[in-house]
Design a protein that fits this description.
Helix content is 54%, strand content 8%. By secondary structure, the protein is an alpha/beta fold. The protein folds into two domains: 85 residues, Winged helix-like DNA-binding domain superfamily/Winged helix DNA-binding domain (Arc Repressor Mutant, subunit A, Orthogonal Bundle), CATH 1.10.10.10; 177 residues, Glucose-6-phosphate isomerase like protein, domain 1 (Rossmann fold), CATH 3.40.50. A five-stranded parallel beta sheet has the order 2-1-3-4-5, with helices on both faces. Helix 2 crosses helix 3 and helix 8 packs parallel to helix 12. The chain is elongated and about 75 Å long. It starts with a helix and ends in a 6-residue tail after the last helix.
Length: 279
C-alpha cells in the first residue's frame, strides 16, 4: 500500500492549485503532519478546511484522521517521525525527556516476568556457548551485551560478524547452546527465519524486543520486552541498556566465584598489555 508521500507524488499533477498548496506544505513539513488536525493544516497551508478534506479523499483516505493513524502506525514500527506539538508544550525538552525515560523504565520493570528473567539468567550463566545476534540498531546493543557477559564467562559470540551472513554460524549451533536475538523494531528480514530455524533445530533462544512485537516473542523460548518511546523521532535505548545492566549483574552473581576470578584475570591482562589509562 502506498504511503502518504508516495500518494501525494503520484496524484500531484492532477491536483488543483489549492490542493497543491497543501501537498507542498506536507512535503516541506512531513515529519510534523502527524501533529496537525485538518483545521490546523488548512490554516498553515493557506487554504480552506474543505480543500484539505477533498485532497485526502482524493488520496484514498476516508477521513483525515485515517492519514494521521497511518503515520502513527509507521512511528510505532520505528520510522523516525517527529511531533512538533511537543515543541510548544509548557515543559522544557529536558523535563519531557526525563519524564519519558522514567516512564520507559517503570513500564518494563513493572511488566517483566520475574520467573522468565530467572530462567534467562540461568541459561546465560550455564549454557556452554552463547550466541548474541543483532542487526541494524540492535547490533550495538548486542555488542554491549556481549562485552558485559564476556567479563563474567567464556564462549560468548557476537553475530553476524561485519560483512558476513548467518548460515555458516547456524550450522555450528547445538541444542545445548543459547541464542540471544536482539531484535528491536525496524528489524531486518532475517530475524523471523532465524528464530524459526532455531525452533526446528531445538536450539533455545531468548529475544529482546519492544512490547509491540507479539510475532517475534512467540518464536522464542523466552522474551524480555523493553519500550523504546521517546519525546520525538528517534527511539530511546536507555531502558534497553538498563535491562542489559540488570541481566549482566544477575549472571555475575549466578557465577560469583568464577566470575570474580575472571574479572581479576582480565584486569591483570589490561595492566600487562597497558591497554587502559591509569587511574
Amino acid at each position: 500500500m502506498q504511503q502518504l508521500d508516495e500518494r501525494l507524488k503520484s496524484h500531484y499533477p492532477q491536483l488543483s492549485p489549492q490542493e497543491q498548496r497543501v501537498a507542498d506544505f506536507v512535503f516541506d513539513h512531513f515529519d510534523d503532519v502527524i501533529s496537525y488536525n485538518s483545521a490546523e493544516l488548512a490554516r498553515l497551508s493557506g487554504v480552506s478546511k474543505a480543500t484539505v478534506s477533498r485532497l485526502f479523499k482524493r488520496l484514498g483516505y476516508d477521513k483525515y484522521k485515517d492519514m494521521r493513524d497511518e503515520l502513527r502506525t509507521l512511528r510505532q514500527t520505528g520510522m523516525p517521525l517527529t511531533d512538533s506539538r511537543d515543541a510548544v508544550q509548557g515543559n522544557t525538552l529536558l523535563a519531557r525527556h526525563y519524564k519519558q525515560e522514567m516512564a520507559n523504565l517503570t513500564q518494563w520493570i513493572n511488566h517483566i516476568d520475574s520467573e522468565q528473567l530467572a530462567d534467562v539468567v540461568t541459561a546465560v550463566a550455564h549454557r556452554p556457548r552463547i550466541f548474541i545476534v543483532g542487526t541494524r540498531n540492535s547490533w550495538p546493543v548486542a555488542l554491549h551485551l556481549r562485552q558485559q557477559l564476556l567479563q563474567v564467562r567464556a564462549q560468548v559470540h557476537l553475530l553476524p560478524q561485519p560483512g558476513q551472513t548467518l548460515a555458516e554460524e547456524l550450522m555450528e549451533m547445538r541444542p545445548e547452546d543459547l541464542v540471544v536475538v536482539v531484535a528491536f523494531r525496524r528489524r531486518s528480514r532475517i530475524i523471523k527465519p532465524l528464530l524459526l530455524q532455531l525452533q526446528q533445530r531445538q536450539i533455545p533462544s531468548v529475544v529482546l524486543c519492544e512490547p509491540q512485537a507479539p510475532t517475534i516473542r512467540a518464536l522464542a523460548r523466552w522474551h524480555l520486552c523493553v519500550p523504546l518511546d521517546s519525546v520525538s523521532a528517534f527511539d530511546s535505548y536507555a531502558a534497553v541498556n538498563s535491562l542489559i545492566n540488570l541481566l549482566s549483574n544477575a549472571v555475575l552473581h549466578e557465577l560469583l566465584a568464577n566470575g570474580r576470578q575472571r574479572i581479576h584475570q582480565i584486569a591483570d591482562l589490561y595492566a600487562q598489555l597497558d591497554e587502559l589509562e591509569p587511574r
